[in-house]
Amino acid sequence: xxxxxxxxxxxxxxxxxxxxxxxxxxxxxxxxxxxxxxxxxxxxxxxxxxxxxxxxxxxxxxxxxxxxxxxxxxxxxxxxxxxxxxxxxxxxxxxxxxxxxxxxxxxxxxxxxx
Length: 114
What we know:
The protein is mainly beta. It is built from one helix and eight strands. Strand 4 (67-72) and strand 5 (77-82) form a beta hairpin. The two termini are 27 Å apart.
């Protein structure tokens, strides 16, 4: 078959419901190297600080709804994103997502090794 389909609910969330939810769909979509994730982050919640140095994966975050701040620890700056904004992040840049807004933020996260 030349395609695969998946729904967010096909995967188990790896984030507790009170913080939102995070669904990795790579396995469900049977991709060989492309990561595809849906993240919902409640107001005042933060994601895990991390980098992708070991995987060599660059990532793109696309904000579907709400607003977030992406703290780029190594660069010493924070980038604020609103709905329909995107950011690409190098693998070795440490990053952490914060929802400092009043509503739940929904994002699509895409990653692939360089």
